[in-house]
Inverse folding.
């Protein structure tokens, strides 16, 4: 113990810090730097490398997609100037840096991504698709523990029966995902359904079927981003969300077809996983 105290004093730390765990120094500006080059096969695919591969790396490519890892590849189907952001983390904190990537020409073949195709219909379709909560299917809304139990990603605590939430403002909401610009329209028809713990944030909300119905205007041209990896997620911008609102707007894709989409998402206070089943119009 004396040795530890002497080390702390030599470092100029105040005595009250002796009982706190040492978190280490945050990343430096140099740690957050990265380089990038166009891939050998396609000038619209950019390969990015973090300067310090020993840190946790989170990329935002500025094109509606994100990734993790010290090496990443980003596709840019549309010509333009994109701001790429790298954030690196360690126990001491985080640091970010940005660079601009200039794409000279369109390459719409890069939009042929399975997730993009599912959400929007892809380049072979109209470029947009509208989704809604599938109220006729049992378990279209449900809840279970976070972290999940041995039962897996299922709503083991409660699952709604078919049409159980009629009249609460959930079933008439529509979510249109657009391929062009990765935009999304949230059409609420005047109200939404929100968890009782966040009802106070929605003026005019009232209790309805266990939670709250709240006035909420349509949101047009919000953005959606996809992060692909072991868990593939969809994140919506600003105040937009899908289905029953629990204070979060990132959704893990559990499974999908061209016309169905099963999602899992968290709770603003933690401890819960919510489940949602959507169907395409």
């Amino acid at each position: 113990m004396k040795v530890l105290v002497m080390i702390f004093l030599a470092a100029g730390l105040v005595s009250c810090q002796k009982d706190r765990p040492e978190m280490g120094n945050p990343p430096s500006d140099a740690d957050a730097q990265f380089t990038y080059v166009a891939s050998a096969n396609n000038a619209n695919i950019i390969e990015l490398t973090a300067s310090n591969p020993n840190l946790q790396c989170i990329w935002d490519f500025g094109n509606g997609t994100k990734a993790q890892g010290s090496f990443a590849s980003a596709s840019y189907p549309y010509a333009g100037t994109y701001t790429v952001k790298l954030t690196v983390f360690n126990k001491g904190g985080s640091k970010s840096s940005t660079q601009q990537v200039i794409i000279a020409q369109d390459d719409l073949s890069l939009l042929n991504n399975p997730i993009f195709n599912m959400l929007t219909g892809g380049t072979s379709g109209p470029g947009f698709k509208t989704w809604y909560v599938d109220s006729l299917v049992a378990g279209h809304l449900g809840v279970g523990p976070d972290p999940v139990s041995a039962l897996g990603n299922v709503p083991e605590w409660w699952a709604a029966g078919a049409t159980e939430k009629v009249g609460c403002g959930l079933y008439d909401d529509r979510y249109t995902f657009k391929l062009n610009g990765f935009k999304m329209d949230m059409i609420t028809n005047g109200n939404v359904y929100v968890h009782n713990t966040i009802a106070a944030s929605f003026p005019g909300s009232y209790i309805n079927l266990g939670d709250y119905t709240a006035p909420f205007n349509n949101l047009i041209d919000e953005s959606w981003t996809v992060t692909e990896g072991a868990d593939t997620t969809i994140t919506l911008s600003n105040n937009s969300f899908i289905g029953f609102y629990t204070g979060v707007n990132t959704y893990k894709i559990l499974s999908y077809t061209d016309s169905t989409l099963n999602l899992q998402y968290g709770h603003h206070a933690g401890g819960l996983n919510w489940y949602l089943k959507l169907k395409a119009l």
Notes: The chain is about 5% helix and 40% strand. Confidence is low (pLDDT under 50) at residues 1-21. Residues 38 and 46 are 4 Å apart (CA to CA). The domain at 2-109 is CATH 2.60.40.10 (Immunoglobulin-like).
